[in-house]
Amino acid sequence: MVDDRGLRSSSDEAERDRVARDIAGRLFTRGVDVRDDDSTDDVAAIEEAVERFESRVQSAGGDLMVDEPPRGQEGQPDEARFRLPLRHADESATRYVERLSKAADDLRSRPPEQ
Q: Fewer beta carbons within 10 angstroms: which end of the chain, N or C?
């Protein structure tokens, strides 16, 4: 991970990197790509955006166990809008977070599909 916070003590930096790797691993199991050039702040922002999206799915009546398939498998969500948007190969972390946020907002404002 890239550290964009400037100079810090090595123990603080090591702990921050450890936490970012842990978060990246959890995101990976959800099918979310975290890249080596993503900063620790990028990883945290992606995690927050994914959690917000998932919270909105649940609030809209979606079931995360059904709506999000295991990594590398096609899912059959109750509604297509409940599927977690995947990160495009050339997409920056910032752009992906923006897209996740829009998808979460759309869940709040759109009625369920009939």
A: C
